[in-house]
Every structure is written in structure tokens, then in C-alpha cells.
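User: Can you predict the 3D structure for this chain?
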Amino acid sequence: MTETGTPGGPVVGDDGLARCPWASGDPLNRDYHDREWGVPVHGERALLERITLEAFQSGLSWLTILRKRPAFRAAFAGFDADLVAAFTGDDITRLMADAAIVRNRAKILATVRNAQATLDVRARGGLDSLVWAHRPQRTDAPRSIGDLQPETPASRALARDLRSNGFVFVGPTTAWALMQAVGLVDDHLVGCHRRGVSGRLPTAGEP
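Assistant: Here is the predicted structure, written as C-alpha cells:
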């Protein structure tokens, strides 16, 4: 792997493709970067999953969350908001005993609360409309990791809107990570082979 000309800029992998530095190591990170990160995400389940994963990532590496992602999906009923919103104390106990996920009680409770909030916003356009209403008209194209921001005015506005609708564990930094992940902004570095590419690549076994 070699860096391109910009310090902190994209890194060229052994396949000859330039990627954001965080995706230049572990194959799981690389696959997520190439196939999902920054690709527009719509739909209640998909967005609730991303909100949940970003909240659980706080204080941990994203790679840890990716490795546990299948377990999170199983633990939280495929992020079906109707099912998760109905979780009881027994479900919380079950999840706290599940070593396959991150056993953080506050974040588990937040996931249930966020599922309930997701149901509440259905009558007002739904989670998809709430999140995508905060898509910025334009963002500057980052050239190096030093240009990336932990939060922005847009993410502060999204965090306020989510919290006002009953969501928790969604501060401005988590909201910005969500916006990057689901394609509200394109934060692939200039020179990254995925910058400006909005389509999702098929995973192995897909047509």
C-alpha cells in the first residue's frame, strides 16, 4: 500500500485502487468502504440499523462494530422497529447476556427507545424523511483526513431534530457519522476511487 501525493490522502491498495486511509487495512473495512459507506440509504429498517450501529460505535472502533454486525441484526430482530419497540425487560436481560454484541445497557436501552421514536415519526413522514431533510446542498471535498470534521452545522441540526422527536444517543458527532455513512454527504477523499460514485456495489453472491 502506498500513499498518493497528498499527506493523509488516499492510499493505493495492492489492487491499484486508491481509498480513504481508514479503509486501507482490514478487508472488512475495505469492503464496507467500497460497497456501502457514502452510498445513499433509504428505508426505515436500514436507517434504524445505521443509527443503532453509529450509537454503539461511540468509544469503540468501527471495525469492532462491523465484525459484530450480523449479531446486532439477529439480536435486534433485523431492526424491525415494531418488534424492537416492543422489547421488554426480559429482552434487555437477554441482550446483556449476549456476548456476540456490545453489552452496553445504556446503548441497548437507547436502541429500544429509538425504535419507539421511529414508530412515533411514521405519522409525520417517517424516519427516512426526517433524516434526508438534513441533506446539505453542498459540502467541501476533503483532500486528506485532516480536512474531515467531527461535526458540522448540518449534523448539529439533524441531532437536534432527532432528539426533539424522541431519539437518544444521537449527538452531533454521531449524526455526522450517520450522514457520511448513509450518503447525505460524500466524504470520500479527493482521489478515492469511490468519490462521486453513488451506486452500491453488489456483495459476493449477488447479481
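Strands lie at 2-3, 11-12, 18-19. The first strand starts at residue 2 and ends at 3.
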